[in-house]
Amino acid sequence: MNRHPVSVPLAQVTVTDGFWGNYMQLARTKILPYQWQALNDRIPEAQPSHCIENFRIAAGLAEGEFYGFVFQDSDLAKWLEGVSYSLVSHPDEALEALVDEVVELLGKAQQPDGYLDTYFIIGNQEKRWTNLRDCHEMYCAGHMLEAAVAYYQATGKRALLEIMLRFVEHIATVFGPGEGQSKGYPGHEELELALVRLYHVTGDPRHLALAKHFLDVRGQQPLYFREEAKVNGPEWDSKILGLRYFQAAQPVREQQDAEGHAVRAMYLYCAMASVARETGDEELAAACRRLWASATQRRMYITGAVGSSVHGEAFTLDYDLPNDAVYGETCAAIGLAMFARRMLELSPRGEYGDVMERALYNGVLSGISLEGDRFFYVNPLEVVPEACEQDQRLNHVKPVRQKWFGCACCPPNLARVATSIGHYIYTWQQDTLFVNLYIASRCQVELGGVPVTVCVQGSYPWEGTIRVSLSCQGAAAGRIALRIPGWCRRWTLRRNGELLCPEVAEGYVYLDGLWHDGDAVELCLDMPVERVRSSVRVRENMGRQAITRGPLVYCLEEVDNGKDLHQILLPAQMEFSARWEQALLGGVMVVEAQGLRLAEEEHALYQAAAPLRQVPVPLRWVPYYAWNNRGVGEMMVWIHAQQ
Amino acid sequence: MNRHPVSVPLAQVTVTDGFWGNYMQLARTKILPYQWQALNDRIPEAQPSHCIENFRIAAGLAEGEFYGFVFQDSDLAKWLEGVSYSLVSHPDEALEALVDEVVELLGKAQQPDGYLDTYFIIGNQEKRWTNLRDCHEMYCAGHMLEAAVAYYQATGKRALLEIMLRFVEHIATVFGPGEGQSKGYPGHEELELALVRLYHVTGDPRHLALAKHFLDVRGQQPLYFREEAKVNGPEWDSKILGLRYFQAAQPVREQQDAEGHAVRAMYLYCAMASVARETGDEELAAACRRLWASATQRRMYITGAVGSSVHGEAFTLDYDLPNDAVYGETCAAIGLAMFARRMLELSPRGEYGDVMERALYNGVLSGISLEGDRFFYVNPLEVVPEACEQDQRLNHVKPVRQKWFGCACCPPNLARVATSIGHYIYTWQQDTLFVNLYIASRCQVELGGVPVTVCVQGSYPWEGTIRVSLSCQGAAAGRIALRIPGWCRRWTLRRNGELLCPEVAEGYVYLDGLWHDGDAVELCLDMPVERVRSSVRVRENMGRQAITRGPLVYCLEEVDNGKDLHQILLPAQMEFSARWEQALLGGVMVVEAQGLRLAEEEHALYQAAAPLRQVPVPLRWVPYYAWNNRGVGEMMVWIHAQQ
After folding, report:
1. What residues in B contact A532, CB-CB < 8 Å?
2. pLDDT tens column, A560-581
3. How far is A474 from chain B (nearest CA, A)?
4. Known catalytic residue at B501
5. Which residues in chain B are contacts of A316 at CB distance < 8 A?
6. With DSSP H G I counted as helix, E B as strand and the rest as coil, what are the percentages for chain B, rounded to 5?
7. What does DSSP say about strands A432-435 and A479-483: parallel, antiparallel, or unpaired?
8. Total of domains in chain A
9. Fewer CB within 10 A of the end CB, N or C, for chain A?
10. Which of A161, A69, A45, A165 is nearest to A119 (CA)?
């Protein structure tokens, strides 16, 4: 019996939420079909992906050379994973048949010994496993393994799972703690977390052990990537990050800070949290909590974006959070949400839910347009389009979302997080159901051995009133734990109409007792407009404030507030109003207030610091996730404020 | 008779200034001797320069390969130029004999057709002039030509001048407007301004014409560097700057903004201003004024640093002046001072003197340590050492001055500007002597045909009282024009004790009439501590103020004010005091005041924006040029201030 909570599986959750339902639909009807066309090189104006063709060549069904990134296979894997989740909520025979065809192709491409990676199968067979640092073999394997698990869970079909079991068997032969086995580990972490997911469906301890092995050997002396470089050639050339880019400069249990490539880091921490949970490894759990604190308490943007620097798409140092030169890759925010979900499975603390919510509603969703057809790779908190175009320092920040990317990691990652959003809402531990996110949904679990359906309703993130109701046959004995978000300072709770005042324990209120059919809990989270500041340790945000409402971070856009947003000043006293605008940005709550705009008579570059003219101006904020859906323009989250 | 002013030559000016005298001495006793050792590979711990050895190989006196940058010759040229200026104020027979030996070596290295560039002489003869964009041939030629002119002016010796006249003759054969001549021009501008200097000593109109030709063909269609790339290979790879990096994307007369590599830009504008002056080309003069306005009114740091970006060491866009990610190369600030001096020769406007003074006293001198043995290449206005080390975005900013550089352009450039500082003080136009800088000095000129010695005395930049006295035989009819600095808002003027209130015309007051021996003018510039702000168009400086006193920009350093300088807040009302500290930093006026430090109880990364605790703290500013002479620490120019 596991001492830890577990996320309620997707199959037991039905999302009815309008807000997220829209993104699930975009994933199903736009992103995934578009990606299928891309994988098959059917998008006229785009560079070919060649992904399916690589598999056809590897399978002997076509002739040609490998084309694409060394991790091109992972694009197909992410598509398969996203489609699998989508099939859970929207069964689709034709789509499933298409997947089965792809699985057949994968089977044909697989080598007799179980190996499966088209880059190496096509003409590089002798180089298998010789460059773990750069060649993403285990990364691709991990994504395909996640897809196999997801497809099996969605459909019960084992074909892809069997293929990947053979591949894992092969990997477990080559790598491991045994004599004669390679002590290598993934250059881009991903396989580790996938192996734990595999373990969840197979129950085979060898799968968990291999995941743990990859964590255990990482960063041990002699450093594997350094040894590898002695054979392959140059050391990794990032003079600042070195092997910390790969989280591979020291053993994972000794790492103190979230470092290096942010997506890699998040996927590693996911695996660490899952392995710590499954093995009860308290040292590993402590490392997870330490890295969590580093990532989220000192190195995270208010939007849940992580990775401050374009150089290595990486973390930098504590409190270094430039708003304009940020990286904040969409995939890294997704990785943070995944890490948070796994931390919730280690221990039910509200802070994990807070960060998960922050990332999902802000830094993740900002990656996709409201139409579902344009994507940000980099998610800035302050944009001046001319500066992005003319200043190479900021040129990695695109002031408009792009149609697709050569390195197409973010769009399919968005698709898989949207289609699996149901997996993030609930965790369950014996007789307690934790509601972590207030995404309208139904969840089927057992409480005290009685099957119950828990139904969450509301208009989150726009309104703070949440209704949690139960249907069951007979009385169910158990607890329902509701997360009181960190952003919320006043709330009320009623159970069947009766006002309750339970204590908040680690971010949750716990409702005990017997539950009957029709029982309902109403949680009213006060959701005023808030002025937020950063710690004074954040250099870039001194004298600035951000506006939030509930889980949403807001921003000013040029289209509403004119150019030169940096000249806007928030007076000490302000009255904010939140107003629903049905026709705007797919329906959003806008925030309005009177502010000031600093003006000068003459634009002398330097002049005596006489007080500036402060012109009253109406200001209008929109949710950050929805910015840049109305053309090109400036945007700003952290606004100058009177001290 | 020229309609324009002319800078009073170095030979007629004796600098007696303590402040600048110190830097002249450092140049003479430290930088130039150290550089001579470097040029001869006699610095044990340093990478070899190989510069002298390259000339010995080219001269057939040694065997070996060329080593170093393609512009390695220019290091010797700058040394020769600096030494030449130094010989004017400090004749030194042994040093002069050493120079003569070097000149002899140059003569031996020179090819029969006059060509002189060791990179091409040693094994690349057939490639001469085939890659003007990248190979710096004309840049090296220009620096050696400046050295030749300087050495001739300092000593009257013609040997180096003759060598360079032969080289110029060769260049004028290869390049020019004639049929069959190459229409190329320098990839790194420098030769153009050197040719005008040559013209000043030879009076040969062909030298001026060649300078003008290089300006005229620059950026004309078909673009020379694009044609060259068709033969040589790849186009310049800076996708943002393109040929604007070289100021070569359009004809110079059509260029609207200061663009591209900042040092290149400054040297080009120097040549444009000089050619405009000599030829009366009003279109070219208008371009100079336009580019001046762009560089100094929209793209210059308060320190006179220019070039906001490490990418291409280049200008970016208007009002883009990041304080921490700045480039602000020392050589570019020197180039700006040179440009300003030439603008003063086009027309006597105080704004040119203001910028010249700003650059020289701040962004130039910050490049060198008070001991004269450490140098900044990049001159930041805000430094957090940990961030420079750990954040690749800021890694080009070194938090401490360096001993020398592989690309050793800045130290010798500092040496030549220090040794020639006398050249920046005065301009003369017929019967008017302009005093542009208040550097204590004596200047010998003619006023109304009568030889006079004008003596400037004072304790600038620490005190605003300046005494200008004359000695002459008989009465001299003429004007003395004194620059009223742009930073000065109150001043008084006395002539032989009598209070005068002349109007300020374009930044100068003009004192007419007859002058007699012993006549004295006393100018008292009120020099209070000032709080300065940027235009509201500068994003990075919103809500911030800088402290200045007279021509000096001040900064806070960690050693005086503790860590986390960004947490300091200047209250609306402050009382500043300036106090002389003889023992500090070689003697400086420090600025002191009570300020505030923002504090918080808890370092939660994001929290409700309740007012922060404001703890009164004593603050101490030191002159910016003198920062980083007391160990490693934070530094900040633009301080947060209450609005």
Report:
1. 606-609
2. 999 999 999 999 999 999 999 9
3. 45
4. no
5. 387, 390-393
6. 40, 20, 40
7. parallel
8. 4
9. N
10. A69
Q: Measured between alpha carbons, how far apart are the two ends of chain B, in Å?
A: 54
Are B405 and B297 in the same domain?
Answer: yes
* Bond from prior residue into A616 cis (ω within 30 degrees of 0): no
Active site (annotated) includes residue A488: no
Which stretch of DSSP H or E encloses residue B426? strand B426-429
CB A317 to CB B643 under 8 A? no
Q: Alpha-carbon distance B198 to B141, whole Å?
A: 12
Residue B2 has pLDDT above 60, yes or no: no
Q: Which two three-digit tokens encode residue B614?
A: 């404001």
B599 with B533, same domain: the answer is: yes
Angle formed by the axes of helices B262-279 and B282-297, nearest 10°: 150
Q: Which domain holds residue A92?
A: 49-231
What is d(CA A356, CA A338) in angstroms, rounded to the nearest whole number? 8
Q: Could you tell me the pTM of the whole model?
A: 0.95
Amino acid in the structure at residue A112: P
The alpha carbon of residue B529 is apart from the nearest alpha carbon of chain A, in Å, by: 11
User: Is residue B486 situated within a structural domain?
Assistant: yes
In this structure, the answer to whether residues A431 and A420 fall within a common structural domain is no
Same domain, B189 and B258: no
Distance of CA A110 to the CA centre of its chain: 30
Nearest to B519 by CA among B482, B474, B483: B474
Q: Which of A240, A300, A530 sits opposite B605 (nearest CB)?
A: A300
Q: CA of B548: which chain A residue's CA is closest? A: A608
**What is the complex's ipTM, to 2 decimals?**
0.95
Q: Which of B313, B351, B557, B634 is catalytic?
A: B313
Place of tokens 């049929």: B179
Of the pLDDT bands very low, low, confident and very high (cuts 50, 70, 90), residue B45 is: confident
Choose the final residue of a domain: A231, A257, A275: A231
**Within 10 A of B616 (CB to CB), how many other CB atoms are there?**
10
Closest residue, chain A, to B303 (C-alpha): A606
Residues A533 and A545: beta-carbon distance below 8 Å? yes
| In a shared domain, residues B623 and B544 | yes
Query: What pLDDT, in 10s, does the model give residues B186-214?
Result: 999 999 999 999 999 999 999 999 999 99
Write a three-state SS string for A213-276: HHHHHCCCCCCHHHHHHHHHCCCCCCCCCHHHHHCCCCCHHHCCCCCCEHHHHHHHHHHHHHHH
